[in-house]
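Subject: two folds for Thursday's group meeting

Dear M.,

Sorry for the delay on this. The cluster queue was jammed most of the week, so I only got both jobs back this morning. I'm pasting them in the order they finished. Each block is the input sequence followed by the predicted structure tokens. Could you check whether the formatting survives your parser before we put anything on slides? The first protein is the one we discussed after the seminar.
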Amino acid sequence: MIEVGDPNDVIRTFRERLMTGVYSAGDVGNPDMVKGELSPLWHRVEITAVEVVYPNPDEQVVHPGEPLEFRIGYHAGQGQVTDIVAGIALYSSMGQMIYGTNSHLMHQDLDPVDGDGSITFSIREMPLLDGTYRMTVGLHNVGGLQYDHWEQQVPFQIAAPGRDVGIVRLDTKIIVEPNGVVGGHGPVFRPKAPRPDVRL
């Protein structure tokens, strides 16, 4: 009889043997092999919790133009990690990504992490319309190998006034100018000439 052992130990051993010497997603032929539990860096840094910090603690929504913070708790229990990138992506209720960024794209090198701590994404204003949105959180190295990843697991609420439709709430005003003229301020678009009748 063959003794299999704990599935987590089997995955870890497989990952470590398969990925020895791999430091970047580009070093792996199959991109799926660097995602999730197959990443050789999986859980060297773990996401322990994500807190949604609304501007008014008594009101669990954010209104357009108000700030919103996402505090990501982490645990690096295997020693100091010097190469860490934190990223977020915001999704509509239909699963459409409306915004994504990470510390590397923002040209912000994060300090080495060790033990427990938090990384905060502070968004100055949320120009979104009413609805429940979801956030993806990811920690990886500069080469794209994942430490941990939560896919659309963090919901947050937006409450917007009015009856606008879509996803983004733009700060818009309407101006009526009697005798106003179109032209002289930017590109002008006019109706296309009607197509002549074609008779066969």
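Second protein, same layout:
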Amino acid sequence: MSVGRALRSEGGAPRVLVAAKAPLPGAAKTRLCPPFTAEQAALLAEAFLADVLAAARAVDPGAGLLCRAADAADLRRRFPGAPLAVQAGDGLSAALAHGVRGGAAVVAGDAPGVGPGAIAAALGSRADLALAPSHDGGFCLIRMRADRPGLFDGMTWSTGSVLDELVSAARAAGLSVELLDPIADVDTAADLAAVDLAAAPATRALLREGGITHTPIAPPVLG
């Protein structure tokens, strides 16, 4: 039996959600500029989402997107057929509290190199809280088996201490925690250059097949 068949949502709520923002020029992946233009950064952001959603669907064919209400119409147009979980608030705390409700795994939409195995590992974890660290002190993948909607309250987001803060808060609440293998997200051109493009076909196609011309950085050479 394939991983996808084993963990599919079977028409119910998605078991995997991809945290997504509308990939709009000037609003998406702005730390890629420079060397990329705002338009190129937006194209890359959309490709990242496509790659992450494909990995999520390999585990759960009913995987969907987790987004703000303001981004829903744009994402629905770009990814027709993908279920949307629209969060009640605009902040990251609200997004995660909504996304992990019911035991779903939430994976960052800017981690194009994530593989189905990493997502399946989060769903299969026996810990109350499973996290895949990112390189900057945060995390790219989360799954909670226990319902603790207030766990994210007071978190200091966008800092290098996010992972440590969340782990400490979880353990203080009596939750067991499993740290999975790290996953790289993409914030800068240097991050993008380190991505394994073999695991990111949409991003690879954009960089190598003319979606972005005159690529400002040299992507990794595939062996």
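Two things I noticed about the second structure. The chain has eight helices and seven strands. Residues 87 and 95 are 5 Å apart (CA to CA).

Cheers,
T.
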